[in-house]
């Protein structure tokens, strides 16, 4: 039996209502999925940027800590250098005072004469030359002449050799030095300086670690004693 126009219209309305409902449900499903994906992506981006911010500030914190350590190290090194500079200045003052007291040695004629003998003998043993020139202060000439005789005897006793020592009256040592002698080979090829100032300088270099320890105590951080 053929459907009437009213029945046809009614079925069309039912179909349209069904299609509309399906479309609405599909749209809601798409919206829900889109919202879910948006939430997930937003969370991912937030977490990603959060990690970047944390990493940035951790890097900044490390840089600050490094700068603090560098600053502290620079201050420590500066302080150490200032201490070392003050110590070296004090050592120089002590050695200068010692040099000022060298004049006392030459005032004791007996002790000074024995010292001249030892300095001459030591120079002879170092050079082992048959003929040497002796330079001294003009004021010490007489004492040196006496010391030469004893020094040659001592040299022969220790080395079994003879030698000749001659005072160089053309080249006196400066009057302002504290004393001692120089030994020079012919032609001035080799010279040994045994002045009191030279001996003090040599001894101060050798005893520098002990001088430091006496003045400032032992340094646990020092690896080499020089």
UniProtKB/TrEMBL annotation:
Keywords: Ion transport, Transport. Gene3D superfamilies: 6.10.250.1620, ATP synthase, E subunit, C-terminal. It comes from the Eukaryota. GO terms for molecular function: proton-transporting ATPase activity, rotational mechanism. GO terms for cellular component: proton-transporting two-sector ATPase complex, catalytic domain. The keyword RNA-binding does not apply. PANTHER family: ATPASE H+-TRANSPORTING V1 SUBUNIT E1A-RELATED. Belongs to the V-ATPase E subunit family. This is V-type proton ATPase subunit E. It comes from Cherax quadricarinatus.
């Amino acid at each position: 039996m053929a459907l009437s126009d009213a029945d046809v219209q009614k079925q069309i309305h039912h179909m349209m209502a069904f299609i509309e409902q399906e479309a609405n449900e599909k749209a809601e499903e798409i919206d829900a999925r889109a919202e879910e994906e948006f939430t997930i992506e937003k969370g991912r981006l937030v977490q990603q940027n959060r990690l970047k911010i944390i990493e940035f500030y951790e890097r900044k914190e490390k840089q600050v800590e490094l700068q603090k350590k560098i600053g502290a190290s620079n201050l420590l090194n500066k302080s150490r250098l200032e201490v070392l500079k003050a110590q070296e200045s004090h050592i120089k003052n002590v050695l200068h005072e010692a040099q000022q007291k060298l004049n006392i040695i030459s005032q004791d004629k007996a002790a000074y004469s024995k010292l001249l003998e030892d300095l001459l003998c030591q120079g002879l043993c170092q050079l082992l030359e048959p003929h040497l020139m002796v330079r001294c202060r003009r004021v010490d000439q007489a004492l040196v002449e006496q010391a030469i005789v004893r020094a040659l005897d001592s040299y022969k006793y220790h080395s079994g050799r003879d030698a000749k020592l001659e005072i160089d009256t053309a080249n006196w040592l400066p009057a302002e030095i504290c004393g001692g002698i120089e030994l020079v080979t012919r032609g001035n090829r080799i010279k040994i300086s045994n002045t009191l100032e030279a001996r003090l300088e040599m001894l101060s270099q050798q005893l520098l670690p002990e001088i430091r320890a006496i003045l400032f105590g032992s340094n646990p951080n020092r690896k080499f004693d020089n």
